[in-house]
Design a protein that fits this description.
The complex is a heterodimer of chains A (252) and B (653). Chain A has 252 residues and is of the alpha+beta class. Chain A has helices at 38-51, 123-132, 152-162, 169-173, 180-192, 194-197, 200-213, 224-228, 236-250, and strands spanning 5-14, 23-33, 74-75, 78-79, 101-105, 114-116, 119-120. With 653 residues, chain B is of the alpha+beta class. The chains are: A alpha+beta (252), B alpha+beta (653).
Chain lengths: 252, 653
């Protein structure tokens, strides 16, 4: 592996709490290895800031392998940056040019208030799951797992929806800041499976009501969410959600 | 000396759990409402326990450092979960899963606990399917299985390469459902700072709100720790950045014995390190070894040419490739257990056959060429598509066309707080579940067994055993948190934080953590020896002293301060690291993941010394302030129904 490095300029959003107005701060960072991940580059920036006695940039991250859904940066105008099918932690510096200026912002949405710098509050997504994003079974008493055969393609399709990592890129990308893709993924995952069909209607209604209540916008079918979803969740699940919702509301 | 009573129930191995459940004390529904339980951690163990306890009627408070419980690091487990369903009709049984686990752990785990784990494994799959976990299925609609290392059957259930994620979402959803009913109160972005003990029983915790910096007190009739392992002692590991050992360490310093701290699992197939700025290592699932073949060049000059970029792996003809696992362990081949595969990789690289162009030349190939020839690209894509993509994103190489490069990385810690059969630590009322305890994997864990253990503990074991403890607590009124013990422990936490904030030294927390990691990897890593371990102990102590003099934490403690969070965790890692080295030094034998170079056979296989070391090493903290000391307590391991053998993966037995 060639140990290539680049010099970059970073415009990073700094905001000291939800009530602070916030502003861009510019930093120069030299000799960034192109094999490093974007967050490793942010570590280098923070190490530099700490050594200079300055306040490091706050951002969410944890697993650094694209699955926990914690990392959430808006980079050069795109959720999770200039690559598709990835989270911010999977973005690598080899995609950037020497001398490039990189703009880094937090998710921006009414339902995701900024906590500090690039860190936002996404507990609204947990609230939506809490409202009904589950199958209501208690521990114990489940029948043998092979009792209900599920066609392979149905299981696969359910998985495609269950793939959601709850990062919120769909909300940040949508011009209306709608959470429809997030809700659609959970509603579809569970409604596709026989186990989940029992309470499918109740679930769709409860989750949509909660989404509306929390200040997410409405869906206008632009499809931007699908493009930036790190797990490639299809917008066709939104159609499935609409069908579930309609069914739930037609039956008195 | 602590009295270590494992409280193993009477009867034959296969009857113990049934006997226990039939004779244990239960808490009535009316009384469950009166009892508060604290659960720390929301991975598979914590989330499943919290949900199950709340469903039963207990009042549960759940804490996690992440912004959402769904992000706990169980989410990253790729390969699968074992269960003795025998759906494949290949001769599996509870006994066989039990036997594979106890053998895989190199006869350093407790017979009764492991048997119970195998017993409840089948319920986990039923529960997960009922929750909507989309496991892989066959065309007939029934569940599919694959095989994992160290076994001769296919008993691993999986959901593409994201089994941990799907199981965690199942448990997380069950947990959120109870948050909705009001039976669970959730505290995300909150870190446990210490344990409060009143009259000899665990009665609460002190926490820090990671957003406001506020220190808070919480009471519980019982406390459950489900905080995972301590692999991040090594700085580089496959753990999440925030994974830490502080909750268990604080409990240890308050009196809970720490068992087998030296037992660390080094996973053979992670992506090799690429530079000094590296923040973590990414695992490539063990399931890949079902279809991938591991090799290095037979000729030293080929290895050198590959490292220097003069040759590509595709240029090496089959006859010049050394499929060393297939050569050394014909019966299990590429699917030998993790410790065996990791040691073999180190052996080949130490001998100069490593293929990665990094300072240590550490890397071997994992090649899918043969599987693609045999099964076609489409089948391989179906099985491992997302893993291949993940690999390509990180390395820039396409594994359909060129072999993956892999190398061992710290992955899992078999050691943890000592617990009895009821999963209770040596502190009454303090329960420890999942990776945080030591109980089931002995000196080495088999693949796809961590998810199994986490969910077994959380769904099916703790919800029973905790009642046996709580049954005589029903008349205990909740203790107000202005009790002097709460006040005292909170003050100690505050003093600890102030101390760290006032050092104002020269170096970042990461600087010290990286140095600690180097000592641990080099001297308390894949292979250990007495001299290296003695050096490690001295070096850890010196570095810890330097940390307390020279660490620099910017900002204040009254709000978000990521550096302070890291400093709190690394301060504990220093102490834990020392105990790991002490344990490794005291255990003068090789077993599972603990390989002492002085104790090996002529063929280089680990040499167990059952006559002297067939026990659990449960260390008791005896230090005060800056001087750390430990006393060794031994729980002998008695195998009543299992024939103890030499672990041998050269033949199929």
């Amino acid at each position: 592996m060639a140990n290539k490095t680049i010099n970059i300029k970073l415009r990073v959003w700094r905001q000291n709490g939800p009530s602070d107005k916030g502003h861009f701060e510019t930093y120069e960072l030299n000799d960034v290895p192109t094999a490093a991940s974007f967050l490793e580059m942010m570590d280098l920036l923070n190490e530099k800031l700490i050594n200079e006695g300055k306040d490091p940039v706050a951002f969410d991250h944890d697993c650094r392998e694209g699955i926990c859904g914690a990392c959430s940066m808006y980079i050069n105008g795109r959720a999770h940056g200039p690559d598709t099918g990835i989270t911010t932690c999977q973005l690598h510096m080899r995609l950037f040019k020497d001398g490039e200026t990189i703009t880094v912002e937090p998710w921006r949405a009414k339902a995701f208030p900024v906590i500090k710098d690039l860190m936002v509050d996404r507990s609204a997504l947990d609230e939506i799951i809490k409202a009904g994003g589950y199958i209501s079974v208690n521990t114990g008493g489940a029948p043998d797992a092979n009792t209900i055969p599920i066609p392979k393609d149905v299981a696969e399709r359910a998985f495609d929806a269950a793939n959601c990592i709850g990062c919120g890129a769909c909300v940040a990308t949508c011009k209306n800041h709608s959470a429809m893709l997030f809700v659609a993924a959970k509603v579809s995952h569970l409604a596709l499976l026989p186990q989940g069909q029992v309470e499918a209607e109740r679930r769709a209604k409860a989750m949509i009501a909660k989404m509306d209540e929390l200040g997410f916008g409405t869906c206008s079918n632009t499809g931007a969410c699908e493009v930036e979803c790190p797990k490639g969740i299809s917008i066709s699940f939104i159609a499935k959600l609409n069908r579930e919702y309609l069914k739930a509301n037609l039956i008195p | 000396m602590i009295k270590l009573d494992a409280k193993i129930p009477q009867g034959r191995l296969a009857e113990k759990w049934t006997n226990y459940k039939e004779s244990q004390a239960l808490v009535s529904p009316a009384n469950k409402r009166k009892l508060d339980i604290i659960v720390v951690g929301t991975g598979l163990a914590g989330a499943s326990a919290a949900a199950s306890l709340a469903e039963m009627g207990f009042n549960v408070k759940v804490f996690c450092y992440q912004d959402s419980p769904r992000r706990a690091h169980s989410v990253a487990a790729q390969g699968g979960i074992n269960a003795a369903k025998n759906y494949q009709n290949d001769g599996d049984s509870i006994w066989r899963l039990y036997y594979d686990t106890i053998k895989g752990g190199d006869y350093r785990s407790r017979e009764a606990n492991v048997y119970r784990l195998a017993e409840v494994s089948v319920n986990i799959i039923d529960q997960a399917v009922a929750q909507g976990v989309p496991f892989a299925r066959e065309y007939g609609g029934l569940l599919a299985n694959r095989s994992f290392g160290g076994v001769l059957v296919s008993r691993t259930f999986y959901a593409r390469g994201q089994t941990g994620q799907q199981l965690l979402l199942g448990a997380y959803q069950a947990l959120m459902r109870q948050v909705n009913t009001g039976k669970i109160k959730l505290y995300p972005r909150t870190e446990m700072m210490d344990l409060v003990i009143i009259d000899g029983r665990a009665r609460g915790i002190i926490t820090r709100n990671l957003i406001t910096g506020k220190i808070e007190r919480h009471f519980g009739h019982a406390v459950v720790l489900a905080t995972g392992g301590y692999g991040n002692v090594y700085f580089l590991s496959t753990n999440a950045m925030g994974s830490n050992g502080s909750a268990v360490w604080k409990a240890h310093k308050r009196g809970a014995a720490f068992a087998n701290p030296a037992f660390v699992q080094i996973h053979p197939t992670a992506i090799p390190q690429h530079g000094p700025y590296q923040s973590k290592l990414t695992l490539m699932s063990e399931s890949l070894r079902n279809d991938g073949r591991i090799w290095v060049p037979k000729k030293l000059e080929d290895a050198e040419a590959i490292r220097e970029g003069r040759k590509r792996p595709e240029d090496i003809p089959d006859e010049d490739r050394d499929f060393y696992l297939e050569r050394m362990y014909p019966a299990y081949g590429n699917l030998v257990p993790r410790d065996v595969a990791a040691r073999a990789a180190k052996k080949m690289c130490d001998a100069g056959y490593g293929i990665e162009n990094n300072p240590t030349k550490e890397g071997v190939f994992l090649d899918f060429k043969y599987a693609i020839e045999r099964l076609g690209k489409k089948v391989i894509e179906e099985r491992y598509g997302n893993l291949f993509e993940m690999y390509e994103k990180i390395t820039g190489d396409n594994p359909y066309e060129t072999p993956m490069k892999i190398y061992p990385a710290v992955h899992y810690t078999m050691g943890g707080l000592w617990v009895d059969y009821e999963l209770m630590s040596t502190i009454p009322g303090l329960f420890v579940i999942g990776e945080a305890n030591f109980s089931d994997h002995g000196a080495n864990r088999l693949g796809a067994s961590a998810l199994m253990q986490g969910l077994a503990d959380g769904y099916f074991i703790l919800p029973y055993t905790i009642q046996n403890y709580l049954a005589d607590q029903i008349n205990v009124e909740p203790i107000p948190t202005d009790h002097p013990e709460f006040e005292k422990v909170e003050k100690e936490v505050q003093d600890h934080i102030n101390h760290l904030m006032n050092i104002n030294g020269k170096y970042s927390v990461d600087h010290f953590h990286r140095e600690l990691g180097k000592i641990m990897w080099n001297k308390v890593g894949i292979a250990r020896n007495a001299n290296g371990l003695k050096e490690a102990i001295e070096e850890i102590r010196a570095l810890r002293e330097e940390f307390w003099k020279n660490v620099r934490i910017p900002g204040s403690a009254d709000g978000i301060n990521v550096e302070l969070e890291k400093a709190n965790r690394v301060a504990d890692f220093f102490e834990l690291a020392e105990l790991m080295a002490i344990d490794a030094l005291h255990r003068e034998e090789s077993c599972g993941g603990h390989f002492r170079e002085e104790y090996q056979t002529e063929e280089g296989e680990p040499l167990r010394r059952d006559d002297q070391f067939m026990y659990v090493a449960a260390w008791e903290y005896k230090g005060d302030g800056n001087k750390h000391e430990w006393e060794l307590n031994k729980e002998p391991l008695i195998y009543e129904e299992t024939e103890v053998k030499v672990r041998n993966y050269k033949v199929a037995k």
